Amino acid sequence: FDSKSTFELFRGWLILQTCSVGWIVRNCDGLYNMSIKILVAEEACAGFRHHGRLAATFAALPRPSGSLRPLSTQALFGVRSFSSQPKADEKGLPGSLDFTDGQIAFGSKSTFELFRGWLILQTCAVGWIVRNCDSLYNMSIKILRPYITHEILRYGLFNHFCAGENVKEIIPRMEHLRTYGVGGILDYAAEAKDDGEPIKAPKAEESTAGASLTARNYDYSGEKHCDANALIFMDAIRAVKDATPDGFAAIKLSGLCDPQLMERMSSCLVQITHLFWKISQDPATRKDISKSPYYAIDREFKVDRDTFKTNWLDFFKVEDDADVQKMFDKIDTDKAGVISYLQWTENIRLSGINEMAASCKHKGPMYDAALNDEELQLYFNLVDRVHRILGLAHELGVRVMVDAEWIDIQPAIDHLVLTLQRKYNTGDQPIVFQTYQTYLKGMHQSVLRDLARSQRQGWYFGAKVVRGAYMVSEREKAKKRGLESPINDTYEDTERNYHDTIESILGHNVGNKGSEVGKDSEAEVLVASHNRGSIELVIRRAEELGKDKKGIYFGQLMGMADNLTFTLSKNGYKAYKYVP
């Protein structure tokens, strides 16, 4: 090989390694055509021919008829065109911003960053690559070896979508965003994985109707591991204070305990809801709701004293009727002679279900769902961790978004977040933000209940609203269990749910002149969306309501939808990048 340069040697080695992979040889024509679609785009060729910033040159480049355009600029970056002028019919409309200005969208990027982003998003738009990414990764490990593969991923995908691996790396990226008026939402990227393995529940699975008994396979190595994760979350909160003071920290509660415990907690909370339904209904006409989606269960009714007493005695053993009267009076905090679902959930504690279960007349779902003594201790450990994390956030004035997760543990997350909001959202701003997934049936009603809770209990309402991230797996699990899917049947249903939810939050307490926290305070919301239409609707509706911009935030993922983030920031809105 004396006649070869180092580059020629590497090229030859790479070619021969690649040609030794039979799958590549058999599919070389398909791979060639895919490469043509990904890499040979008129905009890219012309952009580099003219050099300079790609986004600024795209609009001015000549486009001969018949030129190859496998993916439009809109498909790449979510922009209709790079013209800096809005369409004539858009000018002056409420909520209409010009999201098509390439200079605003990509002015923060170098030429290399633009090309890298273009290449990555083009590649991610090819369905075959997305479906086979694990196999392609394993193939790359064999051909290029782990070090080269991981360095390519680090300087490509990782650097495009992530800010860094530690605080030292994150701070420069956050400071760069701040120069353009964009804040950061720092996310410690760790959560459980959904392998669909059944949990080891202490009770019989077949007798637990409506309970969530499929867990994710989580690398849970004990309470010390969870304590270590709590310290990492606390470091993330300090990093927000240092790197992006007006930003947020995002945490996933599944990293703070065994997710199997959270499933058991959720099963218990589901049964508490089912019990409220049962004691409010006539036994002769009572429907079975065990297979209904949790958030879609009707809770908008009240139970009077006689109905409560009659049905309570059907389910529980009591020494005398006076005990039932005491229970009713304890829940009826308004002394109105009826109890609502909000009053029910305020007074029936998760930690007190064991005592109720012990008095069950029959060992049914409620009895099986109760946490045992060991689980209660693990639950208290979890509560201690989240209070340490949020106590630090409250001390530093850092807002924390608690991410939504899969439906089997979401009721437990909701329960914990409400507890945190009651304690930490009573100052001059909300510290704890709940996440609502609006692809779930009944989520708008859940938001309305929490808005009512904030007024009733006296705390600031703070929320992040998303469409959702577990659609396929949730539908598959529901089908396997013979349950109704918790996911909306159509995209239009989710879209309507998303917009209705945001409008309810925007309109909460708008115009109230009082100063009492919760009762009079407006709600704050982060609109997490890459959907331009949804963002324009939010802006338009806020203007119609007269709601101040300071309580409305917009968030997009790092490396995506820059035309939305930077345009919003340029026009005085609080825009953020979600930064893993």
Can you characterise this structure?
This protein has 25 helices and 12 strands. Mean pLDDT is 83; it is low at 40-92 and 191-219. It is α/β, with parallel strands linked by helices. The chain has helices at 6-19, 22-26, 28-39, 42-50, 54-58, 73-77, 102-106, 111-124, 127-131, 133-161, 167-178, 223-243, 259-280, 305-315, 321-331, 341-347, 353-358, 365-369, 373-396, 410-424, 443-457, 471-481, 491-507, 532-545, 562-570, and strands at 182-187, 193-198, 214-217, 248-251, 303-304, 338-339, 399-402, 432-437, 462-466, 524-528, 552-557, 574-579. The two termini are 45 Å apart. Helix 12 runs parallel beside helix 19, helix 13 crosses helix 20 and helix 21 (443-457) runs parallel beside helix 23 (491-507). Helix 24 (532-545) links the parallel strand 10 (524-528) and strand 11. The strands form 3 sheets. Strands 1-4-7-8-9-10-11-12 form an 8-stranded parallel beta barrel, surrounded by 6 helices. Strands 2-3 form a two-stranded antiparallel sheet.
